[in-house]
């Protein structure tokens, strides 16, 4: 198993910037890696990507030095297992609202005694052909894997104090668009009430000693978030391409 450089940076209170991508093409991940981004988040929720394709995307990430993470479409331990066995080293789970859902996510990501992840000689464990024996790998994997529930619903915000106490969670990623929708703002998160809610959530997450994450459309937005203590910033692949294209087209 590769070292999770993103988790190491986060533990050292260093920010990480990456991309959420719904592409099934490993070349996209490879280019993102060589561009210098910290992580490549495979979007298994809003994309048709299969677990077989995940393995090829992860290989491209490993070649180009970018940390492979994934947003998985459902809190299904067998599905999460397939992503992890393919070599993904962190899971972001959308729509987590309750303590029970957060605890189920931890159980799915972590091996015993921290969770109930099933063991198999897969890519993640070097097929048990590497330097680590099973016991060493299990301990190392539990240390390296990231667990990031995504807060996208008003119910999750109402339950935040309890969610912050769930053992095994590294942090929470706020999804502004879905959160705004659940608050009754169907046109997006650019409303003062939504902004105040997100700011309050970030502060609570930080006070609990956990990682706060959310989306950033531009470098300036990312810097502003980092200045407020948000260490995990992600843009969409489409959004990053659009901003780069718009900047390039200014020369026409």
UniProtKB/TrEMBL annotation:
Q: Which domain of life is it from?
A: Bacteria
Q: Which is a Gene Ontology cellular component entry for this protein?
A: cytoplasm
Q: Where's the HpcH/HpaI aldolase/citrate lyase domain?
A: 21-236
Q: Which GO terms describe its molecular function?
A: aldehyde-lyase activity; metal ion binding
What InterPro entries does its record include?
Answer: Aldolase/citrate-lyase_domain, HpcH-HpaI_aldolase, Pyrv/PenolPyrv_kinase-like_dom, Pyrv_kinase-like_dom_sf
Return the Pfam families for the record: HpcH_HpaI
Keywords recorded for this protein, A-Z:
Lyase, Metal-binding
Stated family: Belongs to the HpcH/HpaI aldolase family.
Q: Can you say what this protein is called?
A: Host specificity protein
Origin organism is: Spirosoma terrae
Q: What is the lineage of its organism?
A: Bacteria, Pseudomonadati, Bacteroidota, Cytophagia, Cytophagales
